[in-house]
Amino acid sequence: MIEMENVHKVYDNGVTALSGVTTKVEDGEFVYVVGQSGAGKSSFIKLMYHEEVPSDGKVQINHVDVGNIKKRQVPYLRRSIGVIYQDFKLLPKMTAYENVAFALEVIEENPRKIRRRVMEVLDKVGLKHKARFIPAQLSGGEQQRVAIARAIVNNPKIVIADEPTGNLDPDTSWEIMRIFEEVNDTGTTVIMATHSREIVNTIRKRVIAMENGQVVRDEHRGEYGYED
Amino acid sequence: MKISTLKRHVREGAKNLIRNSWMTVAAVGAVTTTLVLVAAFLILILNLNQIAENIESDAEIRAFLELNTSDEEVESVGNEIEGISQVTNYQFSSKEEELENLIDDLGEEGESWELFEQDNPLNHVYVIQTEEAEDLSPVADQIGQIDKVESVEYGSETVDRLLQFNQYARYIGIGFIAALLLTAIFLISNTIKMTINARSEEIGIMRLVGAKNSFIRGPFFVEGLLTGVIGSIIPVTAVLVGYHFLYVNLNDRLNFQFIELLPWNPFAWQLSLMLLGIGAFIGIWGSVMSVRKFLRI
Ligand SMILES: Nc1ncnc2c1ncn2[C@@H]1O[C@H](COP(=O)(O)OP(=O)(O)OP(=O)(O)O)[C@@H](O)[C@H]1O
Ligand SMILES: [Mg+2]
């Protein structure tokens, strides 16, 4: 369970990204976070895995105050959450395979299981045949799929995706959404920031809409709801 | 840490060397240069030290007393010698002891000297050591002034010349140290700077994926170790081959009794091992230092 309580985020340069966000996401939910560019979606997400810490208020995951954990606990938090970053954040000198395997190497999974699982996940995102390519040799959409594979390879209880379909053609987007639904069906919480009206309006889920750093709408089986 | 993780770090470290090939060349070059200088410096300093030790242990003053010196006079000469501040040690050796030593030294031939036991032609001798070899000459002069001292002997010519040479060589050695340290620091810090930007991003990503600092450091450690070991190949080869050459050629030419280079075996091997160790240390140090900054955040 993810809980935010009157969360504020002011960056060092004085920009206020979040002002008074209170919300709650139950285990196993699928949530879209929508809102115009700069509304605070990424900031909202970054607080969950301690990339940023709240300036005020509290962010709790399973009753752990993740904004206040000790430095050495941060890796454990991040291992329990699969994150797909808006800018992918793949390791540039590693192949697709190595990037995905990395997430399992850090938890010291045994090598045989790593091999099997990585190939399985790469197959799932349709990139088995490009396992040996480095990010620079992959298209934007392919990189995004590697990032997705890395996020889910460890079967995390929470998957957070920041615009995971931003660079994909419609067909691939639906393919990816199918993967997220599949992951969600196994009980994993999925939180997804998106600009895709079509996806939000077709695969109906809970929608949290943000504007100027505040939650302005929160509805189950909601709609995208605003004009870009 | 699991064995599989250790293997992973070794594999990753080796791959990093290949991935960052230019950095590898620069870093290996830095280690090689440093070690060549270290080797030259150590060969010089350790040999000089050896020579200096030879001089110092061999160097003593022998003060011969006049033949008619009485026992009281012997004692008073001893007291005067004791009064000289640079003297660390002195022994009296009577003419009988001198003769015995002589007979012992000469072995078979010495037996003919036994005839002299009744009518000993030798002098009583004081054997004097000083703390510094540099003090030999002034102390010898001083002792020469003492009443009843007939003559003073020390390897004056050789000692003086060698001491001067040694002094000179030590300055060169200090110059070497300075050049060496500056070069090493410059090259290594430069190499680290070259890769720091590219790597800070990678390290940031690793942290986001849940890697602990120790995990991130692992391959860097291996990388540094390999850089150091590869960097020491040329210096070690140079030492093993070069010192042999030096030893064979120089030792024949320098025919002084004091100057003898340290023997190739075991010195060249010990030095090689030392270079390997220093190389590994520099490599690991440089590599681990380069990530340290990014692991503190
Ligand atoms: N690291 C940062 N330092 C300073 N300001 C930041 C930082 N990250 C974001 N901001 C600011 O915070 C505000 C919210 O940014 P955020 O990235 O959360 O928006 P977003 O909703 O994800 O936008 P987009 O849809 O374009 O990704 C913006 O005004 C942005 O300029
Ligand atoms: Mg964003």
TrEMBL record, chain A:
It holds the Pfam family ABC_tran. One of its GO terms (biological process) is cell division. It is found in: Cell membrane. Gene3D superfamilies: P-loop containing nucleotide triphosphate hydrolases. It is a peripheral membrane protein. The keyword rRNA processing does not apply. Its main location: membrane. It comes from the Bacteria. Residues 2-227 form the ABC transporter domain. Keywords: ATP-binding, Cell cycle, Cell division, Cell membrane, Membrane, Nucleotide-binding. InterPro entries: AAA+_ATPase, ABC_transporter-like_ATP-bd, ABC_transporter-like_CS, ABC_transpr_LolD-like, Cell_div_FtsE, P-loop_NTPase. GO terms for molecular function: ATP binding. Belongs to the ABC transporter superfamily. Homodimer. Forms a membrane-associated complex with FtsX. Part of the ABC transporter FtsEX involved in cellular division. This is Cell division ATP-binding protein FtsE. The gene is ftsE.
Automatic annotation (TrEMBL), chain B:
Keywords: Cell cycle, Cell division, Cell membrane, Membrane, Transmembrane, Transmembrane helix. It is a multi-pass membrane protein. The keyword Ribosomal protein does not apply. It is found in: Cell membrane. One of its GO terms (biological process) is cell division. InterPro entries: ABC3_permease_C, FtsX, FtsX_ECD, FtsX_firmicutes-type. Residues 60-152 form the FtsX extracellular domain. It comes from the Bacteria. The chain crosses the membrane at residues 21-46, 168-189, 220-247, 267-288. Residues 175-296 form the ABC3 transporter permease C-terminal domain. Part of the ABC transporter FtsEX involved in asymmetric cellular division facilitating the initiation of sporulation. Belongs to the ABC-4 integral membrane protein family. FtsX subfamily. This is Cell division protein FtsX. It comes from Alkalibacillus salilacus. The lineage of its organism: Bacteria, Bacillati, Bacillota, Bacilli, Bacillales.
